[in-house]
């Protein structure tokens, strides 16, 4: 290790110690300080680790957490970066603050922001790149899925010996020939049925001949058993697959991967993809199926904390962050699977962190909500008018429908909702504001860091 | 329903950026209130657009790659689309759709991409700049204020017989210079507005539906439809 790196690491560590003990936080500043002294410090920090990079639009955080869980079940402590700290500084901090495990195998699982893949790829030698999916995110972030994929590929191309572990149901991950060994995972849970995706689906062009892709099995958005009737381009052979879907509720999913039954304690088809990715990574790093199944089926609140259920005066209030069209649509599909009647609040802000263009709410199929099972619907937040009209167009019955811009009033209304189950869908800053109020009123501890 | 209208959703499976589908959902919402059954067909690659089969069209925007593919295919629909527009058929074109109805626009790599010149405007690009943010315009003919969200690199200049959809009150508009946003040519409305435009500005949706109804049912009494009150949504 060079003197410069040692100095940089020391400075970073002491700033972390200070921030952690006195300021209750600090996930990116120590990395920033370290990088300012030695921009190449990752090279030293990451040496001797088997590194797995996890990237994609949706599902990075949970896939990372589940992968860590699976790997730790076999190998003990695994290095990872905390949720959301997926830029370069956050990753440097993760290495700086890692407590040395007793195990011999040093593994790092890094959730990595798409645009940061080529940046950190310059300094580290990953054993695997995991690609969850690529959807249109907020337009004011990285823009087009093809541009984003090119950025990721730039990182992958620096490491032809790394294995690519990709969602095989996503056509884009089959669009460019790579020298890397590639492992695909996906869904094969039902008999083929010829179909096309709805008109507002992204990424439907065949990458070979630019015609519209068809599907024999479509899971959601453009994910599924796609094929091109014009040139024969089709989904690659899957090495790991969900071969049976047994039960889905908003709180859990039961399914089989290659015949092994798994229960994950979080709802949503998209989370099954995350579990499948974690299973595949585990298998790639020699974790036995039984070990992975047990790790994934563990109701670990630390892993599933992102979608939290809060007890508000006896009501089970599920607070769900919504941030982009595909994610929103999947959340709507998930809450629809509740067997009991439920109430619903949708809170829309349009600050920078929420996305300043609210048009994306139109890509969520609110039309599919079972309005007869939802006796109370509430819209709120700074842009409540936009979401209110969205719901009117979707056919919400006026007698069950209220609007409250002010989140204090939203919270009061939630307390009076007529069902035990309440779902609150909220954009990022609305989640923060609501959590702050819930904390002030003693329903939860602290805020969200 | 007493009336029915058929809408062509041009390249709906390729150009659908940020809530464009909301324009069609909104048209359908007001159509129902006007006793109109709205039927929607996606007209995409290799499917012909037949002017006499449709009462209106919607043409959204998309990613550069998809738009480039569309720019080639739409040349096969140029004649029928131009006929429809010249005959007074109503349509709405947003962002990329707006650009492709005109003479040309500039692609991501700086190349000139041909539209179908059904409308006389053209679109250049800005260097490393986009117009992003909330925008308000005033339609000079009706006096209506339209609200939207703009996010575009292209700068569009209108041609002969084209007037702006509105005068910019807040925001940038077509090119940040001449104070206009969008275009009106015959009964075709163009804009850079996300929002979606019809969801935020129901009056425009009503106007389009009325034009389509009057064309298809010239003898009908549309007083109920004309008196439909559009409540503010923004």
UniProtKB/TrEMBL annotation, chain A:
The protein's enzyme class: ligase
Pathway(s) annotated for this protein in UniProt: Cell wall biogenesis; peptidoglycan biosynthesis
Binding site for Zn(2+): 206, 209, 228, 231
Enzyme Commission code(s) on record: 6.3.5.13
GO terms classed as biological process: cell wall organization; peptidoglycan biosynthetic process; regulation of cell shape
Annotated keywords: ATP-binding, Cell shape, Cell wall biogenesis/degradation, Ligase, Metal-binding, Nucleotide-binding, Peptidoglycan synthesis, Zinc
Domain of life: Bacteria
Reaction catalysis annotation: beta-D-GlcNAc-(1->4)-Mur2Ac(oyl-L-Ala-gamma-D-Glu-L-Lys-D-Ala-D-Ala)-di-trans,octa-cis-undecaprenyl diphosphate + ATP = beta-D-GlcNAc-(1->4)-Mur2Ac(oyl-L-Ala-gamma-D-O-P-Glu-L-Lys-D-Ala-D-Ala)-di-trans,octa-cis-undecaprenyl diphosphate + ADP; beta-D-GlcNAc-(1->4)-Mur2Ac(oyl-L-Ala-gamma-D-Glu-L-Lys-D-Ala-D-Ala)-di-trans,octa-cis-undecaprenyl diphosphate + L-glutamine + ATP + H2O = beta-D-GlcNAc-(1->4)-Mur2Ac(oyl-L-Ala-D-isoglutaminyl-L-Lys-D-Ala-D-Ala)-di-trans,octa-cis-undecaprenyl diphosphate + L-glutamate + ADP + phosphate + H(+); beta-D-GlcNAc-(1->4)-Mur2Ac(oyl-L-Ala-gamma-D-O-P-Glu-L-Lys-D-Ala-D-Ala)-di-trans,octa-cis-undecaprenyl diphosphate + NH4(+) = beta-D-GlcNAc-(1->4)-Mur2Ac(oyl-L-Ala-D-isoglutaminyl-L-Lys-D-Ala-D-Ala)-di-trans,octa-cis-undecaprenyl diphosphate + phosphate + H(+)
Ranges of residues in domain Lipid II isoglutaminyl synthase (glutamine-hydrolyzing) subunit MurT C-terminal: 321-430
Catalytic site: 357
Occurrences of domain Mur ligase central (ranges): 54-280
GO molecular function per UniProt: acid-amino acid ligase activity; ATP binding; carbon-nitrogen ligase activity on lipid II; zinc ion binding
Quaternary state and interactors: Forms a heterodimer with GatD.
Family: Belongs to the MurCDEF family. MurT subfamily.
Name of the molecule in the record: Lipid II isoglutaminyl synthase (glutamine-hydrolyzing) subunit MurT
Organism from which the protein derives: Ligilactobacillus pobuzihii
Lineage: Bacteria, Bacillati, Bacillota, Bacilli, Lactobacillales
Gene assigned in the entry: murT
TrEMBL record, chain B:
Catalysed reactions listed for this entry: L-glutamine + H2O = L-glutamate + NH4(+); beta-D-GlcNAc-(1->4)-Mur2Ac(oyl-L-Ala-gamma-D-Glu-L-Lys-D-Ala-D-Ala)-di-trans,octa-cis-undecaprenyl diphosphate + L-glutamine + ATP + H2O = beta-D-GlcNAc-(1->4)-Mur2Ac(oyl-L-Ala-D-isoglutaminyl-L-Lys-D-Ala-D-Ala)-di-trans,octa-cis-undecaprenyl diphosphate + L-glutamate + ADP + phosphate + H(+)
GO terms assigned for molecular function: carbon-nitrogen ligase activity on lipid II; glutaminase activity
Lineage: superkingdom: Bacteria
Record's keyword annotation contains NAD: no
Catalytic residues identified in the record: 95 (nucleophile), 194
Pathway: Cell wall biogenesis; peptidoglycan biosynthesis
Enzyme Commission numbers on file: 6.3.5.13, 3.5.1.2
CDD domains: GATase1_CobQ
Annotated CobB/CobQ-like glutamine amidotransferase domain residues: 7-201
Keywords: Cell shape, Cell wall biogenesis/degradation, Glutamine amidotransferase, Hydrolase, Ligase, Peptidoglycan synthesis
Keyword Zinc in record: no
Residues holding substrate: 130
InterPro entries in the record: Class_I_gatase-like (IPR029062), CobQ_GATase1 (IPR033949), GATase_3 (IPR011698), Lipid_II_synth_GatD (IPR043702)
GO process terms (BP): cell wall organization; cobalamin biosynthetic process; peptidoglycan biosynthetic process; regulation of cell shape
Pfam families according to UniProt: GATase_3
PANTHER family: DETHIOBIOTIN SYNTHETASE, LIPID II ISOGLUTAMINYL SYNTHASE (GLUTAMINE-HYDROLYZING) SUBUNIT GATD
Family, per entry: Belongs to the CobB/CobQ family. GatD subfamily.
HAMAP family in alphabetical order: Lipid_II_synth_GatD
Binding partners and assembly: Forms a heterodimer with MurT.
Function: The lipid II isoglutaminyl synthase complex catalyzes the formation of alpha-D-isoglutamine in the cell wall lipid II stem peptide. The GatD subunit catalyzes the hydrolysis of glutamine to glutamate and ammonia. The resulting ammonia molecule is channeled to the active site of MurT.
Protein name, entry field: Lipid II isoglutaminyl synthase (glutamine-hydrolyzing) subunit GatD
Gene from which this protein is expressed: gatD
